[in-house]
Amino acid sequence: MARSKLIDTSSDQNDYYQELWSRFDLCLEKINAARDSLEIVNSKTKDDELKTKLRRQYKILDNVAQDLQAFSPDPGPANDSDCITRLLKEIKSPGTIALENEYDEAIKEYKRELYTSSCAWLSSAAGKLFAGPLGFGTSFLVGNTITRLVSPDHQRWISYSIGPVWSGAAHAFFTGPIANQLLFWMWTSPILGDMKNCFLLLASYGADRWKGELDKKKYRSKDTKKTEKLTIVERWAEERPIAEINWERMKTKKTSYLAATMNYILKVIGPTVAPAAFASKDLITRGYDAIAHGVAGAISSAEYLYSQQYLRSLGPKAEEKILPTRAISGMQTAKLKSLAKNLEKAIDSDRYKNDPVARPALARLLRTTNRNAIIAERKSHYFGTLKHELMNSLKDVPSRLDMTAGALGRIVSLMFVAGMPQVTSALRQSSHPGLRFLGNVIPAIDLIVPPG
Predict the structure, then answer these.
(1) C-alpha 83 chain-centroid distance
(2) Which residue, of 35, 129, 210, 375, has the fewest CB within 10 Å?
(3) Is pLDDT at 375 greater than 70 in this prediction?
(4) For the purposes of burial, counting CB atoms within 10 Å of the CB of 215, is it exposed (0-12), middle (13-18) or buried (19 or more)?
């Protein structure tokens, strides 16, 4: 039965519709529970052969779950916030409420310490100080050091291959998770999500134009109160101009890279004044250049993180996100597991088992709660946030595609940056100090010039 037919059922068939939707949701709940169980077993076993089998089974269940999710009817009132709030008040046990109150108090105390305690402020500042250099060090420091230490005979091809590939891929994969592991809180900006959504809508427009479906109403409105589907053109009209979004993105994300440009400009004073000490004639002089570049990069990355967080905090829709400690994550795990037991009991109770609205809503809440409990438990261990962020970036096909696209974009950009020193090599070898300075400073400026 096509999904469009399910959605267009008449009022006389409403009971059948609700029962069918309920069966879909319960089936999806069981598949997701099995998938989550496989993930837990896979994280604990050390048998490589068993890990391979578990990953294969996980992929199968993940594909089935996605297919069911795409085919299932519109949940309607089962996702209504008022309905969910009412159900939670009805099914929570006193033990769950006590655990939630304990968790809320711990979060309040944690925030109070961060805002008022000088020790906590210094720890937070130290986290920012080290998060930038460590995050960028795993990518750019390694790539740039390799490029600068190799002999001039191999430097050209390495600067176009190993340097950009390692730096771009590692920056996309490691920098964010390392920062989240070390920081105590961070400012998030919705502008990055807005920009990504614009690209998705542009891709959808291209696909609909290719298939001749520009007049087909199949997109949900940005306004959640509107139930009527929209065409891609109508949906695009709801967004702000892409130029305006990109300008805000440049201010909150790209402006911070000016720190790297300024520091690298200061760094090139050395090769300009004492070219012999930084020449590429032997490993020692190449090492001086690599060390100077690494120090400038470490300072730049720390300044980048500080300035980025400050600029994001100025945004009208900026949100301050507290990154909890392992102890707080453990308390969150306890309250979520307790809530999951309440939800399981409610689903099987006589009060809700035949309710066409409440039971699907409870099933969805249970699935979300179990997922959040797994994440919270993972973060309650040492380096748990780092592990979760790395796993989350590769959790499904869309995430892996997004990570791959991000890495490829960085690699291509860095290839342009890597090519500039080759273009200006003649200037750096000039006997005139001004030309030598220009040959070193142009690559630094290229860091903030698209597509660099």
Answers:
(1) 30
(2) 210
(3) yes
(4) exposed
